[in-house]
Amino acid sequence: MPRMVFVERDGSRHEVEAQAGLSVLEIAHENNIDLEGACEGSLACATCHVIVDPAWADKLKSPTDDEEDMLDLAFGLEKTSRLGCQIVMTEELDGLVVHLPKAG
């Protein structure tokens, strides 16, 4: 099973199993990672905003226009910001690292 790493706001790292086919948001919830996801992955908010480690950013599919529109509402936006609900885990993403943004 693929694995991924969540880097918490305080810098602590949590490596977790990441079932292929689940979104980063779903994986976070399964592992008690503090990633809100208020709209439950329906692409109607930006509360699952994560910052993808730059080493992984080019390995992801490009964000859709709808995702980019929602990201405009996120606090602490960075060049590699994405919505966790829109990143679906695959075997190719084994080792993916995402950072939780600082609280606003």
From TrEMBL:
Residues 2-104 form the 2Fe-2S ferredoxin-type domain. Pfam families: Fer2. It comes from the Bacteria. One of its GO terms (biological process) is P450-containing electron transport chain. Its cofactor is [2Fe-2S] cluster. GO terms for molecular function: 2 iron, 2 sulfur cluster binding; electron transfer activity; metal ion binding. Keywords: 2Fe-2S, Electron transport, Iron, Iron-sulfur, Metal-binding, Transport. Gene3D superfamilies: 3.10.20.30. Belongs to the adrenodoxin/putidaredoxin family. PANTHER family: 2FE-2S FERREDOXIN-TYPE DOMAIN-CONTAINING PROTEIN (PTHR23426:SF72), FERREDOXIN/ADRENODOXIN (PTHR23426). This is 2Fe-2S ferredoxin. It comes from Parasaccharibacter apium. The lineage of its organism: Bacteria, Pseudomonadati, Pseudomonadota, Alphaproteobacteria, Acetobacterales.
